[in-house]
Specification:
Layout lengths: L2 H18 L10 E7 L10 E5 L4 E5 L3 E16 L2 E11 L3 E8 L3 H13 L1 H4 L3 E7 L6 E7 L3 E2 L9 H14 L49 H11 L6 H15 L3 H14 L5 H21 L6
Helix pairs in contact: 2-4, 6-8, 7-8
């Protein structure tokens, strides 16, 4: 292995080690937390809320800022008694928790997010960003803003208002993120009493990425042991995926289980690079499986300086 490859590998291991320190009590659970930005429906004069499916009522979210890496941004049409509304969904990966932020695309809040991300630019949305909400002076109006570590709050020169212009902006943002498919999705079209379903069914088609993404270069093992399959199903919930997606992750799990040390760490990183364009629900399953192997590689790596 070259000196540069060794340096990159050690840096990646240091990042993973730092992430492991993010333990202890948390206000939000692991998995996906959906935040609905809506002053009318949010209780306690809040700007957004979560939905309790058991009590069938909104849960106020008092915090006004959420930080993470932009992992997906889509739009979809929702039917209701009031007509058809185009919704915007922004996914922020915050480690153990992913936040799906939903609002109306053409509302002040949706326009603010799209224009803020466009103003931030390609380089900044590759880094962690913050999305914040605040009430406007006018009743029911909600502002949403984008903040970057380098420039703070983004103040765009102009804000698109027409639907076509907003969708075009979403396409640009997705291209910056390396996502080849368009911004329209059907993943959230199953209606719930309040807004849209919290569940994220797989996209049309059988491939995990939904757009023909290639699999990582992880060598195939000769056989899959029953123990490895059981571990994957228990920890990653692979039975919830489509048959082809489940088979893909089982094959990766099998190949990774045959490796250790530096070879295992490199293979895990190749897998992580590939799942960046996967839908959030599928990516979460893959990250859990890869996390098990990453911990195994970390514990066995005696060359690390910590």
């Amino acid at each position: 292995m070259s000196d540069s490859s060794e340096t990159i590998r050690l840096l990646r291991r240091l990042v993973r080690a730092a992430e492991r320190e993010d333990m202890g009590l948390r206000s939000d659970p692991p998995g996906t937390v959906t935040l609905y930005a809506n002053r009318v429906k949010a209780p306690d004069n809040c700007c957004w809320y979560r939905w309790d499916p058991n009590a069938e009522e909104p849960i106020a979210v008092t915090d006004r800022y959420v930080r993470g890496r932009l992992s997906d941004i889509v739009c979809y049409d929702k039917e209701s008694s009031e007509g058809t509304t185009t919704k915007l969904r922004v996914a922020l990966d915050a480690g153990r928790t992913q936040y799906d932020i939903e609002t109306s695309l053409a509302a002040t809040s949706g326009r603010g997010v799209v224009s803020g991300l466009l103003a931030a630019g390609k380089n900044e949305i590759d880094r962690p960003i913050t999305i914040g909400v605040e009430p406007a002076d006018k009743d029911q109006v909600l502002f949403m803003s984008v903040f970057t570590d380098a420039g703070g709050k983004q103040y765009p020169d102009s804000t698109p208002s027409e639907k076509d212009a907003l969708v075009s902006g979403l396409k640009t943002i997705r291209e910056w993120m390396g996502l080849s498919s368009g911004p329209w999705t059907e993943r959230f079209t199953r209606s719930a009493p309040h807004e849209a379903s919290q569940e994220q069914p797989p996209p049309r088609g059988d491939t995990p990425a939904g757009d023909g993404a290639h699999e990582p270069a992880v060598p195939e093992a000769s056989a899959t042991t029953q123990a490895a399959k059981g571990s994957s199903n228990e920890e990653g919930g692979l039975t919830e995926l489509s048959p082809k997606a489940r088979k893909t992750l089982e094959r990766w799990d099998e190949a990774l289980s045959q490796k250790d040390g530096a070879e295992l760490a490199d293979a895990v990183e190749k897998c992580r690079d590939q799942i960046q364009s996967w839908p959030p629900a599928y990516k979460e399953k893959a990250k859990r499986m890869l996390g098990r192997h990453d911990r195994r590689a970390f514990e066995a790596d005696e060359e690390l300086p910590f």
